[in-house]
Structures
1.
Amino acid sequence: MNSSTRFMLVCALAGSLTLPGAEIASDTTAETPAAPVAAPKFSTAAEARVRAIENFMSATKCRDRDERFALLLEVLKDDPAAIPPRNYIRAMIETRADARKVAGELLELSRKNPEQLGLASLAFQMCYTANMAPDDYLGDITDVLNEIPDPAQLPEEELNEYYNLMSLYSSALKQARNYGEGTAYFASELDREPSPYRSIVLRFAVDFEHFFSKLGNRESRWFGLVDSDREKAGKRFEELFSELETLEQNLTGEESERAMDFYLSVGKPEAALKLAEKLAKANPNPTNETRLAYTAIAAKRFELVPPIVKKLSGLDGWKGVSQLISINSLLAQEKYDEAKKEIQQLKVPIARDEFMLKLHAARKDYKAMRDELDGMEKRLSPDVDVDLANALRQLVVAEKLRDVELLNRIWKLLVDTKQIESTDAANSVGYVAAELNVRLDEAKLLIEQALAGDPDNYAFLDSMAWVLFRQGKYAEAETYINRALRASEQESARGVIFEHKGDILLKLGRKSEALAAYREAMDYSEDDDFDPARVEEKIRQLE
């Protein structure tokens, strides 16, 4: 900006300025040289705000990401309450590596400015996204939350940040598997005077207890006289959910839709179905009927679906939706032959192909899945060399069928089309080769290539552990499997990783630790790639 513009901006930011004046006699104006005017002096705070504005403007024009991060951090150092730089930082974060660039400095800034809830929210969000060890910042979240005597008195904007902090606190406690601190915190929050926001706090508490009812410590104490964390969480979950459902029984419109989604997420499809039925009755439009049908499928109330399908199929523009509802209902009931007939009637080829793949996967008919994928590959447009998504699914089939020939064909196809340069493609080929115990040196190079592009990816780390296991390098494999478990602490798909850890520990002669890892794996039985029966057999052999 030019000097005059900058000066006007400074004046606007710093407030009114009193410039030193001089009494100038009218009859001596021509003869007396003008005295030099002293530069205006600003307060430290005003100077900081000027720097903040200038750095922010520079950041918006800067093309170098690291330099832009640095400038935005400088803005927040000078103006911790500023909102635009916080939004810019959030929008720029794409990977854990990005978050690591700012997490440490933001945490320090938050510690210096604990009253700035928006800054604290951003700092802890970056710590979590960067997958920092929860113990490095959990105490800081606790300190900020403890400084808020009555959340109901906060302005709306700060109240939103408070709920962001509560969500981040819950997530960090889950990652740390710290049930005691979390359940005590939510109990104290729910002991406050009732407020219009009680249902929000209840949802956080319900979600927290649901998590620990599935993944909390299963060991009881005092010779079985005291419930385990898992047992306590299960009881507390049911108690809190009952209160939440009662509190939210009269919701309407969008509030009902959000509640239904939440109920489904914590394994309460029956409660979601009640809301869906009320909503469809109060406003019987096709959208609400569709939501009711899918909620009925989730609740296994399949008898409710056919009337909805019939109603929607008679409406203009809704026949296709009714077909998809019917197919999903039949698949959920494992009525595969009926589902196949309806899939074949779909007019859109892509939908037909995808549902056939879904059908074969549900049946675990991987030979039929291979044939389906082959047909999809042949139907590719002439100007498309390879469909990467299709190729990756063929690799899954190769793994399931132990089909080395298929693996080699897809491997060559990806190399020839340079799709192997994709980190996902490189990792998938490398992992399947390790699983089939072939071309291990080449597989290791591909996984190294994937890790070079995304060193924090837990799936890639697990693949490296597995190829090292196949090569007999068990100590190195243990290092990588532990890194994979650390990187996946926020994930729900960890069954295969724990199984791999058990296999590695068994080769290292540590049977009791291997057994513990296999038992841990069983907590993640919903992992799509995990085979509970296989791990149960491994546990049986070690017990």
2.
Amino acid sequence: MPSHEIPSNIPINATQISRTVRVSAVTLMILAGVGLLPAEATTLPPLAANDLSTPSTINLGIQQAIEQALTQNPMLQQSQAMIDQAKGAIQEANGNRLPQLDLSFGAMASNNALNVFGMKLNQGTANFNDFGVQQFFTQAGPTFGNLAGASAVPPDALNHPGWDHNFQTSLKLSIPIYNGGKIRGLRDQAQALLQAAQSGDVAAKQQLMQQVISAYAAIDAAQAFVGVTRQAVDAANSYLNLSDKLYKQGVVSKSDSLKSEVNAGDIELRHQEAINQLSNAKDGLRILIGMPSNQPFKINELINLSKPKGTLEEARSFAMQNNPQIVALTQQIDAARSGVSSARSVYKPQFNLMAQQDWNSRTLGLKNDSYTVGGVFSWKILDFGARSGQVERAVADLSGAQSRQLMAINTLLAQVGASWRAAELADYRLRVKKLAITQSEEAARLEKLRYEQGLSTLTNLLQTQAELDKSRAELVQAQYELIVQRTNLLLALGELEPAAIQTQPLISQTQFTAPKGSTHYAHP
């Protein structure tokens, strides 16, 4: 898992002769909305054309930030759409198990002999003349002396009836009795997909929470880093005044005074860059929670996350059972199995009942009603591989779902292990950096005394101060890293919920602290 390391674009070593100081503990998540949030995620809301006033500054707590992100981020709108889609599939499957009532209306005109005669029968208007009776009597003669000839004459009224029309209204009731288990399989598949979509929604919410927590902690760290650079500025100005004083006393050369002046300017520049990084970190959180870009805010809480209980192996076992993405994949496998069952139903017979009432008339209206009832038994015997192809496709879907779950489990186990070890290392690093700061502060104090007495050089003094600034910045990095890794660990375990976040009031805007049980260092 990549380390959430603070980039080294703000070294505090003004002389730049010591090793590179990796102190910018906070570009960290400066681009939280870029590194953690997909490109299609929430964009900054546009400002109203007539809104030129600056809103008042608001205090933003972590729970408020999470709640706002959960209600406005498009990621969750997409997952909710998938849930609604699955619910619709269940409703469709349930409806297919019940009788269906269809109402239809049709109008037809034709001069086809069979159609015209059928329309007259349906309308109840057929008579003997429609069979050519009058033509028959005419050909047979008054005494029926030409019966043989008359019988051989085609009836014009029957064979060439001319145009006629019919209006038909039908009400049909279809009752499914047995369909080989197809509808039940589709319903079970839709139910499993709904559960998978709901688990996916939980996963999406937890992922969004992880982004918000990381972005919020990035602001905490950025503010602490501003405090680090502020201390560096104060120290640089102090050394500048000291070197000027010693130069006037003839203790040091003019070059020391010039070096101190350059050093103070460089450190002031680094401080301004840290302030800019803080603004960038705030913009990243704004993107995540959908806050207008002209809305000023400040965070008022420090966030803590406790270490999960148990061992690494217990954590891995728990993650396999509780991680919402793994749960969703398991439910997708259940849906694929139901899909196989539904596909195999095409090899079984089907039986359905129907009842229909029709009205037929040459004019609009419900006239000349008739009734039809029946049952239909069907069984496809030969289709030249169409059914087997359908079943094979469903089986392949099941195999693919099982493979995806196996790959996800392997990835999850590696992720839990990496986050667990990274969190342990960050916790240990806090204790090391606490000691390093104490020693560096004492070393800087002694080096300053030596320089004041002319026993050391300005180069040594600035290098000692750079080491102190480096230790302070690395502590900020370690604190931020611990929060990020514990957040990632809780995400992998499926336990990243708002209740898992512990908070304490932010006393100073440059304060930053590690979770309880770890070393605590607050910047003045």
3.
Amino acid sequence: MSVIVLWSCHLFVTSETYFSASDCGENLLNRVGMFAFMFGKYRFLVISIALFLVLDLGVLVLNFYTSGKIAEQAELINLAGRQRTLTQQMSKATLYIKAQKLQMWVYQSGLDELREHYKTFADTLRVFNDGGAIESIDGGQPIEIQAVVAPQGLKILEQANPLWKQFEDALAPLMVDTLVTDEEIDPASAFIASNNAPMFMLMDELTEHFKASAERQTVFLRRAQIVGISLATINFFIILFHFLKQLRGRDLKIKVKQNESDQILSTIGDGVFLLDKNLVIGGQYSRQLETIFSTKRVSGQSFKRFLGRYFANKTVGLSMDFVKLYFRPHINSALIEDVNPLKRVEATITTEDDEAVQKYLDFSFAPLNQGAGNRAILVTVKDVTAQILLEAQDEQAADELEQQMSLLTQILPVPYQELDYFIQESTQGYDRINALLKDTKHIADNFENTLNKIARETHRLKGSAAALNLKWVAEQHHALEDNIEALREQSKVKKLSGRNLLPLTIKLKSNYESLELISQFRCRLGNYASVVGTTVEAANDHQKTLSGHGGEIPEIDGKWLSLYDYAERLATDQGLSLDVDLRGFEAPMEPTLTEKLHPIAIQLLRNAIAHGIEDSDTRCRLKKPNNGQLLIALSHDRGGNYRFTFQDDGRGFDYAAIRVELVSKGILTIEQAGRASSGDLIRHAFMDTVSTQLNTDPISGRGVGLPLVWQLIKSIGGRLKVRSVEREFTHFIIEFEHQSNERETSTRTLMERAG
């Protein structure tokens, strides 16, 4: 207390104000008294919340402790069950050795099995008696087991220990690494045959003992949870009732004060004037009216002309009709207030500096009876600009918060390495799009080519975002594609220039901001993980089984393993069933190799699901498996020659639809399209914006997927082979060179149709 007094006095001295010791002490007492008053005022709430937290914490601790005990009992049950099995296995092994002892190569395996069962049984029995570490049932890490201390368990062990000592004596000759004789195996076999059942029964009793103990602990935990949750719930409702009671009292006080404030503002802070029956503004009005409208020409003005300075003619006409209603007899003003056209209306006001300013004004009308049948209207004008803008900001902030929360929930499951790569890839992609938008000379020379490049880059980034299940980012890219498509349609009607790309620039800026937000989240999550010592691991970093895949997935590089989840999401969205087979992508994959192939795989996967794989009914009619079959494989030789294969058993290329699309876009004439071979049509599908999809959806319909694949193949110097049979399959083969030292390979482009 003396330290606090000295500190308080020091504050007074440093502020160059001098007080006596009594003044300092009095001030300190006032502060302590204020704290005591605040605690006394909210004492009930503080105590209730503290009790609520204590109850929850108590239940949590009890749950944690008892769960650990139950888990330990489960291990004991498993170990005791194994003991039962081992007694049978040892008996079986001795009989086997006895029957086959003349064949050295036959009974040696039985002898090894007997010795292994013998050692496991002995070690487990030792742990039951003395406690210690023992290998778990599933062969995992050793587990620590406490010695059995329950009376019933000790009683069983007291019977089992001497019996096991006899087992040891009988089996001791067989534990030596020598040939087994009749004098060794016959007594052991006879002893185990006669004593196997008693030992089995003892181990069975021990198992049941452990089960009963686990059941008692489970019942205790359940009861404790019910009691704790019940008490916490009761306490919660007490807090809620008390809080609502206080809140209601404060609301009433606030409402009274608000009414008083409104009355003061209506006479001082707002513009107030009278309208006579001729709708002319009276000579008396509040000075705030001049401030609101930035004019002194108010008195004697026609209300219609006055409004005409600031509002559109339609608004003025509606307003005059509305005001005239107040002069009609038997009109209830409360009933017509809801149709007031001058409620929170936007006005354009010219200031004394001839600057046009946008304001939001709120007009209210109140009829007055002046006697002798004369009526007037009291008009109150409020400048609600700040309020409107604040509401708009609050709404925008709420939308941004909702978007950020949605984005955060989408980011959390993504592994950090994949998220970092996505951020880097997106940044580079945005930079390339930005460079295209800034190249005004190239835009003027070839507007359509610029749009195609931007569309391919956007489609690639959308695929990468969708592969990580970043739906918000994928939707932004889809919206950017909508803008690109709209510009493409406009360019067919009139010539466009760089100015018409402004909507794309705005969208790109929004995408940059979203990417910056993702980077911030990534940084914060990384810092959090470094503090608590944990990281967020994606579910697809572990072994998993894909619905319909029919088996366990091998250890595959994490980024490629995520294709299973992506394929399942896309197929589910399209109402399809799909089996994916990945080969040659075992972890760890070389990062540069993944960077080359992963974007291609994403685009081909989207193409296969959108255009290739049929629904279950169609596949049934075609006598195909119910689930679509998709193979993605990678192989290479020692010379760095790689072969990337992508194959689906879907409907294949629709050559007729491609011909129709090429003719409709003016790329080929009807005669040229009729003469075009299947190889020619496939080349057009990869080089022109051709889509056989009637409607545009998030994964297809824009005709940029395959041209993007072709650009990616060219960027790695690859060769593409395509083989497709309608209603049977499509097979893509990409051959390229890749060296571990990241040497650049020359770009070679060749397309050919195999078969």
